[in-house]
Design goal:
Shape of chain B: flat
Largest sheet of chain B: none
Distance between the termini of chain B: 60 Å
Strand content of chain B: under 5%
Radius of gyration of chain B: 29 Å
Helix content of chain B: 40-55%
Low-confidence stretches of chain B: 77-114, 148-175
Order of helices and strands of chain B: HHHHHHEHHE
Chains: A alpha+beta (343), B mainly alpha (175), C mainly alpha (189)
Oligomer: heterotrimer
Number of helices of chain B: 8
Largest sheet of chain C: none
Order of helices and strands of chain C: HHHHHHH
Chain lengths: 343, 175, 189
């Protein structure tokens, strides 16, 4: 049995937990749109070294990835992985749209190109979509990795849910922390700088990809996404079927067609500017291999569908005739099932 | 500027894990330093709340558990454990082999019809993440992880030539 | 998987008495401990059942005079960990132990007016949710240090790690818990 604690003690704790005392900034509650705009571009202006932890909160566990990061503005980045153990020592060097996955254990380098990464037009469009669907509300002052930060809450205009909290460095406007909430209100994903130091003294030599002693391999191409969806769908070469239902604010924003193991696969990305859903579709009856995951079953329309969870991401797969579908997203499973049922 | 106590020290103090000398100096410090005292009280209160929460959630041992223990002791059944934990409740975690067996049980097959190959789920997950990169504040960028080399090796993608010019979409574009 | 099947030997009267009194005295505590680690009744039942079976099998190795509860908690902790390890694939979050504590640089928040009408229930839900978001190791250390109120030394023995690891795990876990509860509260308010 516990001794009843004095009310004052509770009050103190509650205030700590609520963060009430933190001098609520003058602009708290204000519009964070301008701040967001700066935050999107901050990494192109400032160079830094630091340590980042990404944590993905699944239903019953949390997976964390920890890496050191060196970034030289505008577009050179090296990430050096510390944890989990399976990634320890791996690094990724990104230069522009090319990235090099360097595995010192197997002496392999995987080269990847992501054309989407510097598609500024698409980026601007999606930022517009974000502002269209979300209110950006400035929250109380924050402190991340020892730096003063301004919190911006992104609140969905349709549901009123806070979907993301972003802590923006007061000085440089770089995003220092990002918490994505699940529909239940718990944190689904967190990116957080554990340490950060801004510096202009980062040598370009850091971003040199080793050439000797390594085998190079072209990694899976993640395509050349286009916003001209009609052209993409035509290229698919089969009668593509899309969803009739999408959550409020979602629109198709990009798509591509890839031949995966010889199977032509159409990939359409839907977004509300902050959250995304991917629909993959093939007409060759090529199923999704889920053998590396814990498989659950559910119903889509009257048929059986399978889903797996990878941290806070859900992959739902089902078939209809010779069409196989995979729907991937960070939204609730109920929403995914609803979208799938409308296909 | 006054040097305040770290929360780590306060936590050790709350748990009575400091040396007598450190304990005494923390005691003296929080007597005089109001912010540190507040912080100390907050840490104490967090502990109190945890205990209050635990007390509130406390439950009786279900009688079935006791009965099952005796049943197993008498029957000498060694490993209900592995069966319950790895087989009956797939939501917890299944070794790959069990997943396959379970899939068979549910009548699912990973061998696609018409001889079409099956495509690794992680390919879709990675592709989804990759296409996100134009969405502001997407999990890509700062949270990109090294690719799963096995998957990268197994999935031999060939990009088809979809050379369409990016077209700026308008907010009222239709699906 | 699976323990080799041993020939069935009925319990001796001594063994039976030992098990009977162990369940009687510690069954509830063990079940609650397991529940706090897993936050799932079915898992807690399985863990409790298995822990007592292990106790029964190893009853001779229990030394009178040592804490039975620490022993069975250690068994539950290990079973829980084994079960988590079986989860293939990605790594369970293990916060690095080498992070230097961050000193407060005199930017302490100021005191606020006490909230008189504090209702316990208000924090219970955010607290429960936040606890679920901790890694298993973090939850274990909080349960042992703050709910069961074991010393760092005892926790180190139960968790099978060093006192330094207990210390840093607890520090990290408590700091994260506060952050998480704070977020939950912010969301609600």
């Amino acid at each position: 049995m516990q001794i009843r604690k004095p009310a004052a003690l509770f009050a103190a704790a509650l205030s700590m937990l609520l963060g009430l005392p933190a001098g609520v900034g003058a602009q708290s509650g204000g519009d964070g749109t301008a701040l967001l705009r700066e935050a999107v571009l901050a990494y192109t202006k400032y160079s830094y070294v630091g340590q980042v932890q990404n944590t993905d909160f699944g239903k019953s566990r949390a997976d964390a990835v920890l890496f050191r990061i060196e970034h030289r503005a505008p577009d050179m980045t090296r990430r050096w992985y510390l944890a989990p153990e399976s990634l320890y020592g791996d690094s990724i060097i990104s230069r522009g749209d090319a990235s090099y996955d360097i595995d010192p254990h197997t002496k392999r380098i995987i080269v990847m190109h992501d054309d989407a990464i510097d598609d500024q037009i698409a980026m601007d469009d999606n930022f517009g979509l974000l502002l269209h669907n979300y209110r950006a509300v400035i929250g109380p002052d924050d402190n991340v990795a020892g730096r003063r930060a301004i919190d911006v809450l992104l609140i969905n205009k349709y549901t009123g849910e806070t979907v993301m909290r972003i802590a923006i460095d007061a000085q440089t406007k770089l995003v220092l922390q990002k918490d994505r909430y699940s529909p239940s209100g718990s944190i689904a994903h967190q990116m957080r700088f554990e340490q950060i130091r801004f510096t202009n003294a980062i040598p370009t030599a850091l971003f040199t990809v080793p050439t000797t002693g390594y085998t190079r391999k072209e990694g899976p191409s993640h395509g050349n996404p286009s916003n001209d969806l009609q052209a993409v769908v035509r290229t698919a070469g089969f009668q593509a079927i899309g969803p009739k239902y999408l959550p409020d604010g979602f629109l198709p924003v990009a798509g591509d067609v890839a031949d995966i193991k010889g199977v032509r696969t159409l990939h359409i990305l839907y977004s509300d500017g902050l959250r995304t859903i991917s629909l993959f579709e093939n007409a060759r009856g090529a199923a999704v291999d889920l053998s590396k995951y814990t498989v659950h079953t559910t119903k889509v329309k009257s048929g059986t569908a399978q889903y797996v969870e990878d941290g806070s991401t859900t992959l739902l797969t089902w078939s209809s005739g010779s069409h196989h579908f995979a729907l991937v997203g960070e939204i609730s499973r109920a929403e995914l099932v609803r979208i799938a049922s409308s296909v | 500027m006054m040097q305040h106590l770290t929360n780590d020290i306060l936590l050790d103090y709350v748990h009575g894990e400091l040396s007598p000398a450190d304990d005494a100096s923390v005691y003296a410090h929080i007597e005089h330093c109001q912010p540190c005292r507040m912080e100390y009280e907050a840490e104490v209160a967090v502990g109190e709340m945890l205990r209050a929460h635990a007390a509130q959630e406390e439950r009786e041992l279900p009688s079935a558990v006791k009965a099952q223990i005796w049943e197993r002791v008498r029957a000498g059944q060694p490993s209900v454990w592995s069966r319950t934990m790895t087989w009956l409740r797939p939501s917890i975690a299944l070794p790959a082999a069990a997943v396959l067996a379970l899939a068979a049980y549910f009548g699912t097959t990973y061998i696609s019809p018409q001889g079409a190959p099956s495509i690794e789920a992680s390919y879709y997950l990675q592709d989804h993440a990759a296409m996100n990169s134009t969405v502001p504040f997407s999990d890509r960028g700062s949270s990109v992880n090294p690719v799963d080399l096995e998957t990268a090796a197994a999935v031999d993608t060939q990009q088809t030539a979809v050379n369409v010019q990016p077209a700026s979409y308008t907010a009222d574009a239709n699906p | 998987m699976g323990v080799p099947r041993k020939p069935v030997e009925p319990p001796t009267p001594e063994q039976a008495a030992f098990l009977e009194s162990a369940i009687e005295q510690y069954g509830k505590a063990t079940y609650n401990f397991a529940y706090r680690l897993t936050h799932n009744e079915a898992d807690a039942r399985d863990l409790t059942q298995e822990a007592f079976i292990r106790v029964y099998r190893a009853w001779r190795s229990f030394q009178p005079g040592t804490s039975f509860l620490s022993w069975i908690y250690r068994i539950v902790t290990n079973l829980h960990r084994d079960e988590l390890r079986r989860k293939k694939g990605r790594y369970q979050e293990e916060i690095p132990e080498d992070n230097a504590p961050q000193a407060f640089g005199g930017e302490r928040p100021l005191a606020v007016s006490p909230i008189e009408d504090y209702v316990e229930g208000q924090l219970s839900e955010p607290l429960a949710r936040s606890l679920e978001q901790l890694s298993p190791d973090q939850r274990q250390v909080i349960v042992l240090a703050d709910i069961e109120e074991y010393s760092y030394q005892e926790i180190a023995e139960i968790m099978g790690c060093s006192i330094g690891t207990v210390r840093s795990r607890l520090h990290r876990a408590r700091a994260l818990l506060r952050r998480l509860v704070q977020r939950q509260q912010q969301k609600q308010s």
